[in-house]
Design brief:
Layout lengths: L3 H11 L1 H15 L1 H4 L3 H25 L2 H18 L5 H16 L2 H17 L16 H14 L3 H13 L4 H21 L5 H17 L1 H4 L8 E6 L7 H12 L3 E4 L6 H10 L4 E5 L6 H13 L8 E4 L1 H5 L3 H4 L4 E2 L3 H12 L1
Parallel strand pairs: 1-2, 1-3, 3-4, 4-5
């Protein structure tokens, strides 16, 4: 039976377009002088933003975890600051969202949602308008990560590759390259996009370049003795961020597992078929965006319902699970790992 929180979250998602219109109507009515100059394009983007806010709020309500929406609000604060919006823009948006939901939802559903908005508004002043860099410090790996990022941002893929291969030749392990260079650099690129310092095109180029350079390390990854263990690794349908799960799969390869990595945006039926055909000892699922958490829950439920599915341990990971460390229990997984290295330990515990 669906809980009140689940009903409230689902209702927000189903009525998202109407509620977003109500939010933006208030925005343009109360601050016409600020927003009217952006024209029809600006209003369309405002509707998109309001829809995103509602989506993240709904997912937090469904998961019964305010931290998911608080974290999103902190992220948007930095995004708005980078775009040069007025300092009060997000606080005003939360107020308009509160008003639209209070008027647009049945009383019992509003009562279930209201604490999440209250918590987000309370957390907003402490959120940083300028998130800290992921590349602070002066360790050798951090210095390498900075040089690597500089090469990527200069679109110099050759230099970026040479930096990594020279480090490997000097004795730096593939594991250290993954955790000390690739992972923080990817996070730093996301921070730079969030603060309006790199474009979407630059972000995509950097990610594609890193994936190419990762492939150059495969002779080192696939040279270990095999354990006869099988991992199926996937990103939930609709999820386009795959590099984190690819790193996880590579770590399992380095531990001697045979891995079957399906990449991003894999349809659910294909995942189920693969788990069965590969006779997986472990299924690893990644979601980077909070609005894909429900998809993780649905996939896990589908695996449990298929023949033999209950014997397959399931591990989850990705950004929303790092924000809410108990979220893995909510979606029905057997375990959770915050990074590729810890995933190995979790897998060992799950399979015995």
């Amino acid at each position: 039976m669906e809980s009140l929180s689940e009903t409230a979250g689902r209702t927000i998602l189903e009525q998202r377009a109407r509620l977003a219109e109500a939010i933006v109507a208030r925005q343009y009515s109360e601050q016409a002088a600020i927003w009217a100059r952006y024209g029809a394009t600006g209003r369309h983007k405002s509707l998109q933003d309001a829809s995103y806010h509602l989506t993240y709020l709904a997912e937090a309500v469904v998961a019964a975890d305010p931290s998911l929406f608080n974290d999103y609000v902190a992220w948007v604060k930095a995004l708005f600051a980078g775009l040069g919006f007025p300092e009060t823009a997000l606080a005003d948006t939360l107020t308009w969202t509160r008003e639209a939901l209070r008027e647009g939802l049945p009383a019992e559903l509003w009562a279930a949602v209201e604490p999440y908005l209250t918590a987000a508004q309370a957390s907003l002043p402490a959120a940083a308008a300028e998130p800290p860099s992921f590349l602070s410090g002066d360790s050798p790996l951090t210095l390498l990560a900075r040089w690597y990022l500089d090469a990527l941002l200069a679109a110099d893929r050759r230099t970026a590759s040479r930096l990594i291969m020279d480090a490997i030749a000097s004795g730096v392990s593939v594991r250290d390259i993954y955790l000390g260079v690739f992972q923080p650099v990817q996070r730093e690129i996301g921070r730079l996009w969030q603060t309006n310092r790199v474009s979407v095109a630059q972000e995509h180029f950097c990610t594609a370049a890193t994936q190419l350079i990762m492939s150059q390390l495969y002779p080192y990854i696939f040279s270990t003795n095999r354990t006869n263990r099988r991992l199926v690794a996937t990103c939930i349908g609709g999820e386009l961020h795959e590099i984190g799960m690819r790193m996880v799969a590579d770590f399992f390869e380095m531990e001697g597992w045979d891995t079957y990595f399906m990449g991003a945006n894999t349809p659910l039926p294909s995942i189920l078929q693969t788990v069965k055909e590969r006779q997986a000892d472990l299924l690893a699922i990644s979601a980077t965006m909070t609005f894909h958490v429900r998809g993780v829950h649905e996939l896990i439920a589908a695996v449990r319902d298929m023949d033999g599915g209950r014997r397959v341990p399931i591990m989850v990971g990705g950004y929303p699970f790092n924000v809410s460390p108990q979220l893995w229990r909510t979606v029905g997984a057997d375990g959770y790992a915050p990074n590729a290295q810890e995933a190995i330990g979790v897998a060992t515990r799950l399979i015995g």
